[in-house]
């Protein structure tokens, strides 16, 4: 059966806006070029938002691999959702694009400030991170369908050619944004101001395209609404730029307390120092000056507490110095100078080489009154040579030198590095790293490693031990009680890493002969160490050094026996290609 033809209806409306040619104030060729330029700018801004979320999440939460995976996966998913939602806006593409860009500029530009505020005042930022990744991804995903509609309205062309032009401009813009973030915005303006300025550029680009180039597509009401929205967004972003410094100061005070007196972004990490002012304030052992005992935070993690650091550094250094000659010593990390202080207490030390990545930490260790008092000005000793370099790269360079150009082997190598649970530090606890270090050991030399908390993160600690043993070294693991509750070097930062100044900190346990200090009720707060040599190293205290201020032979031996009793066997070593510390 043949259906009869449908009757022709009269009064049918003309083609929708998406199909009608745009009336532009410039020739079509120039208009098309301007649309592609806006695509370029929007792509650059979008990638800056993405990188800013990854960088800030890594800094605030830690574990860069996880944070990058969360941000990228959520954002790519959200872009697909945004592209689907934008289909409903194609009938009014100019108005829709203007609204999307105003929203993206506000959300993306303020995201860094909002995430930092969530972390500082509410103690967590993970849910905000997912929320901003989702919102920014939806808005970025909505851009492409709307821009495709607008560019086709400027001058019709085949779909393949239009897609090729659009994505070419998009990808080149992403390249520029990806390079501008680490090399221009981050070092020049910082994360907060850099994100706000990016939002401003985004708002201006979107506003110019819609309010000027496609102004004939807008009703008077839509034109005034978009103009007001863009003006409001720019005003809010400008206010954020003006208030960025006092906001950052207030947020830092919320995180660290009112005694934060040094806060610098070194290019490697954020370094914050609290307390340590006044006579004796930086000398540790419970003595306070104005602002309380000195505390040094690196990227939000407590690295040095003047009240307990002497126990940590004595336990790290003295057993390694006791097993044989120790005329030549290599320190990997330790830019605060505190491990060097303990090394120089041994009279037979002839030279100490310190390899530290961050010149800002070295500068503070030399010039800050509290920290230099605490380390006894050790980095200024004529026997000490300081090298600013990545420890892994420096060890590798020494191994690549010809036989006649290699440095003399070291009697002791002290690895005073951040926690192995931090993703960026896993290579410094890898089989390859310890293999390079072992090549620089003298025949009777010893290597000692700070290996993380041995009780509450036992698997991580014993993975360090397994990795050291995998390069042919015999190990003696040991531990020491007294790690502060806030001394947490794992993948996550602590939202409020130190108690308020008016709270009395818990003093370190006093050293006394006998068994180790009993673990705390929450599972024991210990520092963990691994002493290694080609043959099983002797364990004890050296005879040519003054007695340790916070240790005793009995306490060290008890720490060694405790770790021997709790050993976890059969763990695979961590390598560069398969880091085990994040399992």
From TrEMBL:
The active site is at 416 (proton acceptor). InterPro entries: MFS_trans_sf, PABS, PABS_CS, SAM-dependent_MTases_sf, Spermi_synthase. It is found in: Cell membrane. It comes from the Bacteria. Its EC number is 2.5.1.16. The keyword Cell membrane applies. Residues 491-517, 540-583 are annotated as: Disordered. Residues 558-568 have a biased composition (Basic and acidic residues). It catalyses: S-adenosyl 3-(methylsulfanyl)propylamine + putrescine = S-methyl-5'-thioadenosine + spermidine + H(+). It is a multi-pass membrane protein. Residues 244-499 form the PABS domain. SUPFAM superfamilies: MFS general substrate transporter, S-adenosyl-L-methionine-dependent methyltransferases. S-methyl-5'-thioadenosine binds at residues 269, 356, 390-391. The keyword Transport does not apply. Catalyzes the irreversible transfer of a propylamine group from the amino donor S-adenosylmethioninamine (decarboxy-AdoMet) to putrescine (1,4-diaminobutane) to yield spermidine. HAMAP family: Spermidine_synth (MF_00198). Belongs to the spermidine/spermine synthase family. Homodimer or homotetramer. This is Polyamine aminopropyltransferase. It comes from Streptomyces caniferus. The gene is speE.
């Amino acid at each position: 059966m043949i259906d009869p033809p449908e009757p022709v209806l009269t009064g049918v409306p003309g083609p929708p806006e998406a199909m009608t040619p745009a009336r532009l104030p410039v020739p079509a060729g120039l208009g098309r070029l301007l649309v592609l330029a806006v695509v370029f700018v929007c792509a650059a801004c979008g990638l800056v938002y993405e990188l800013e979320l990854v960088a800030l999440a890594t800094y605030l939460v830690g574990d860069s691999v996880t944070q990058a995976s969360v941000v990228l996966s959520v954002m790519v998913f959200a872009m697909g959702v945004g592209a689907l939602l934008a289909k409903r806006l194609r009938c009014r593409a100019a108005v829709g694009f203007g609204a999307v860009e105003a929203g993206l500029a506000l959300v993306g530009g303020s995201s860094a400030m909002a995430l930092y505020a969530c972390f500082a005042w509410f103690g967590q930022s993970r849910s905000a991170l997912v929320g901003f990744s989702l919102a920014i991804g939806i808005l970025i995903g909505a851009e492409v369908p709307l821009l495709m509609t607008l560019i086709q309205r400027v001058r019709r062309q085949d779909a393949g050619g239009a897609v090729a032009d659009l994505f070419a401009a998009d990808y080149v813009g992403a390249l520029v944004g990806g390079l501008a973030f680490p090399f221009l915005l981050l070092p020049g303006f910082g994360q907060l101001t850099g994100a706000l300025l990016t939002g401003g550029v985004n708002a201006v680009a979107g506003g110019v395209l819609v309010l000027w180039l496609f102004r004939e597509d807008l009703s008077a009401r839509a034109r005034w609404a978009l103009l007001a929205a863009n003006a409001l967004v720019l005003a809010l972003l400008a206010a954020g730029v003006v208030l960025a410094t006092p906001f950052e100061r207030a947020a830092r005070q919320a995180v660290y307390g009112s005694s934060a007196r040094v806060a610098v972004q070194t290019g490697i990490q954020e370094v914050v120092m609290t307390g340590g002012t006044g006579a004796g304030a930086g000398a540790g052992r419970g003595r306070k000056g104005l602002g309380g005992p000195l505390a040094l935070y690196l990227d939000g993690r407590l690295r040095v507490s003047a009240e307990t650091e002497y126990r940590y550094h004595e336990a790290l250094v003295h057993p390694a110095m006791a097993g044989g000659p120790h005329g030549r010593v290599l320190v990997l990390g330790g830019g605060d100078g505190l491990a060097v202080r303990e090394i120089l207490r041994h009279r037979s030390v002839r030279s100490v080489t310190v390899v530290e990545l961050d010149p800002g930490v070295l500068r503070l260790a030399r010039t800050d009154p509290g920290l230099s008092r605490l380390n006894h000005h050790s980095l200024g000793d004529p026997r000490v040579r300081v090298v600013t370099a990545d420890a892994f790269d420096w060890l590798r360079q020494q191994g690549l030198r010809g036989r006649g150009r290699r440095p003399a082997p070291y009697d002791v190598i002290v690895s005073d590095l951040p926690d192995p649970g931090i993703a960026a530090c896993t290579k410094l606890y890898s089989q390859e790293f310890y293999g390079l270090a072992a090549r620089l050991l003298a025949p009777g030399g010893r290597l000692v490693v700070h290996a993380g908390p041995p009780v509450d993160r036992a698997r991580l600690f014993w993975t360090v031990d397994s990795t050291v043993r995998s390069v042919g070294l015999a190990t003696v693991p040991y531990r020491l009680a007294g790690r502060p509750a806030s001394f947490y070097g794992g993948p996550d930062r602590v939202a409020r890493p130190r108690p308020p100044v008016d709270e009395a900190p818990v003093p370190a346990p006093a050293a006394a002969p006998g068994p180790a200090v009993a673990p705390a009720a929450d599972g024991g707060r210990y520092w963990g160490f691994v002493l290694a040599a080609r043959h099983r190293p002797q364990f004890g205290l050296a005879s040519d050094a003054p007695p340790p201020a916070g240790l005793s032979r009995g306490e060290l031996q008890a720490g060694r026996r405790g770790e021997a009793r709790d050993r976890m066997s059969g763990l695979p070593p961590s390598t560069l290609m398969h880091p085990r510390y994040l399992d």
